[in-house]
Amino acid sequence: MAKAAMVQRQVKREALVKKYAAKRAALKEIANNQDLPMEERFKARLKLAELPRNSSPTRLHNRCKVTGRPKGYYRKLKMSRIALRQLASDGHIPGMVKSSW
Fold first, then answer.
1. At residue 80, does pLDDT exceed 90?
2. R_g of the chain, CA atoms, integer Å
3. pTM of this prediction?
4. pLDDT in tens, 15-74
5. For strand 79-80 and strand 73-74, is the pairing parallel, antiparallel, or unpaired?
6. What are the C-alpha distances in Å from 79 to residues 52, 56, 70, 74?
7. 73 beta partners
């Protein structure tokens, strides 16, 4: 089980990313537009830098929805390999059995 503080920090980051997504996209559009004057693009970059650091989507990390574990994460199932194995062993995932050879 991951620390509760780490999971809460991730939830807070997800909320900030969602909140500032439109503003960040608009500023990036201005900053990357080569048709605009250099000063206007530079001002857009400065405003982009003033946004909260945790509002950047690159600061997000995939975490298991069951345990909060950040490593060994399966995107399709949104859980870690350990939680998946445990649920499969308990018989909670239909059609999945523990392999042995």
1. yes
2. 20
3. 0.79
4. 999 999 999 999 999 999 999 999 999 999 999 999 999 999 999 999 999 999 999 999
5. antiparallel
6. 28, 23, 9, 6
7. 80
* Per-residue tokens: 81: 């390999």
Instruction: Show the beta-strand stretches assigned E in the chain.
Output: 73-74, 79-80
Q: Tell me: pLDDT of 2 over 80.
A: no
Q: For residues 37, 41, 44 and 45, what is the CA-based torsion angle, rounded to 10 degrees? A: -160
Question: Do the beta carbons of residue 88 and residue 52 sit within 8 Å?
Answer: no
In angstroms, what CA-CA distances link 4 with 10, 37, 90? 10, 47, 25
Q: What are phi and psi of 84, to 5 degrees?
A: -65, -45
Domains of the chain: 1-61 (1.10.287.1480), 62-101 (4.10.830.10)
CA distance 72 to 34: 41
CA triplet 79, 80, 85: central angle to 5 degrees? 100
